[in-house]
Q: What sequence folds into this?
């Protein structure tokens, strides 16, 4: 009796899964955003170690332009701006990422829980989100950081994260309300799955794009908030440098009137590049999860199954089945 031949389809399935995982990195916007963010994170880690001077050290080179000795010029006290920029990168990245993580965790706990559950607990969490949503975040952050006896990067990140989660919680609550009555959720509930298992394994995977977008938006808000706090004079004492501190001293010493463009342009350019990197990552995530955006304006797009999708503005995409008589 002949033994049946077993065809191993594991390599083909593994290649398909690998292609799906690499699709995000293959997106040009996501690739550029990841590269730029990688550079900023690397500078945040090694920046204070590779800076040529102590950012607070004074010298006799007062308000001098870029040169071989000082690549980005000096301040009114002879401080090296390039060293200040490198040292300040760590503070900006640390506050942005830490505040983003804190706010995302809080928005997940409160938003998804209030959206899936019902009753007094859900209404109380929703009311809490509404209260934090109407409170002006930046003035509240300014008041809290001014009251605290000492403000460090971690303290500022905690304050920003604890006061900027409400908007993400509202968005996640709205998405959860639309998902909790789906067929697969009802099926999981009918089979006796616990509430937290349904939330974690059935609902949260479908909120990945919203969670990632919420995290990136919070990081952008945290970075701009920290820079704004430093620019208006909050947390500018001591040796805790960030890009906002550089702009604060440039503005207070009238760098623009003196023509010292090197004092404020590099910090402003660094802020713009970091915002661009985060925005590109956000666009890449949107295109990764949305088939309509994944086409990048192409008229025909290949799906995962190999079918052809015609992307038409204003119409539902039409699936083509590879007929030879198609025009």
A:
């Amino acid at each position: 009796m002949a033994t049946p031949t077993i065809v191993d389809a594991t390599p083909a399935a593994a290649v398909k899964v690998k292609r799906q995982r690499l699709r995000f990195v293959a997106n040009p916007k996501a690739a550029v955003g990841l590269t730029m963010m990688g550079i900023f994170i690397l500078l945040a880690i090694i920046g204070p170690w590779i800076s040529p001077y102590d950012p607070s050290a004074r010298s006799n080179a007062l308000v001098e332009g870029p040169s071989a000795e000082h690549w980005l010029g000096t301040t009114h006290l002879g401080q090296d701006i390039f060293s200040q920029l490198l040292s300040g990168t760590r503070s900006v990245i640390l506050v942005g990422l830490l505040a983003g993580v804190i706010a995302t965790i809080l928005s997940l706990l409160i938003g998804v829980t209030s959206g899936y559950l019902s009753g007094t607990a859900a209404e109380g969490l929703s009311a809490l989100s509404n209260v934090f949503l109407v409170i002006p975040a930046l003035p509240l952050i300014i008041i809290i950081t001014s009251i605290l006896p000492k403000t460090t990067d971690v303290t500022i990140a905690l304050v920003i994260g604890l006061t900027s989660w409400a908007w993400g919680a509202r968005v996640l609550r709205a998405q959860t309300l639309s998902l909790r009555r789906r067929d697969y959720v009802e099926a999981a509930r009918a089979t006796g799955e616990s509430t937290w298992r349904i939330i974690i394994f059935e609902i949260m995977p479908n909120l990945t794009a919203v969670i990632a977008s919420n995290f990136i938006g919070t990081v952008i808000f945290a970075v701009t908030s920290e820079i704004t706090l430093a620019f208006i004079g909050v947390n500018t004492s001591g040796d805790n440098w960030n890009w906002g501190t550089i702009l604060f001293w440039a503005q207070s010493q009238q760098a623009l009137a003196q023509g010292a463009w090197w004092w404020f342009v590099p910090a402003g350019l660094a802020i713009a590049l970091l915002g661009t990197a985060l925005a590109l990552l956000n666009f890449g995530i949107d295109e990764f999860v949305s088939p309509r955006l994944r086409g990048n304006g192409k008229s025909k797009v290949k799906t995962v199954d190999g079918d052809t999708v015609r992307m038409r503005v204003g119409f539902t995409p039409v699936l083509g089945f590879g007929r030879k008589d198609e025009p």
